[in-house]
Amino acid sequence: MTKPAVLGRAMAITKEKKSEIIGSFGRATEDTGSPEVQIALLTPGSMTLTEHFKTHAKDHASRRGLLMMVSKHRAS
C-alpha cells in the first residue's frame, strides 16, 4: 500500500528506484556508502527541487534544503 502524497508532494524516490540506483552505481549488491551511490541517490531530489524553484522562487526553506543537498554532493 502506498502512502498518500503529503501536502501535494510525492515521495522523492521509491524503494524500487533506490534499489535500481544502488544496483547500477554500487560496487557490490548492497553497497550504499560509496560516493557514486550517494551522489546518484541525491541527484533526483536536487533535480526535483530545481524544477520546484522555477515556479516557487520565494520558497527559501526548500532552497536551504537544496543547498544542504549540494554540499553533500561536494563532500562525496
Could you write a compact summary of the structure shown?
This protein has 76 residues and is mostly helical.
Using brief descriptors, characterize the structure shown.
single chain; mainly alpha; 3 helices; disordered N terminus
Q: How does the overall form come out from the CA principal axes?
A: elongated
* Share of β-strand residues: under 5%
Catalogue the unreliable spans.
Answer: 3-8
Approximately how much helix is present in the residues?
55-70%
Structure write-up:
- With about 80 residues, this protein is mainly alpha-helical.
- The protein has helices at about 15-25, 35-55, 60-75.
- Helix 1 crosses helix 2 and helix 2 (about 35-55) runs antiparallel to helix 3.
- The chain is elongated, with a radius of gyration of 14 Å.
Secondary structure elements and pairings:
Blueprint: H1 15-25, H2 35-55, H3 60-75
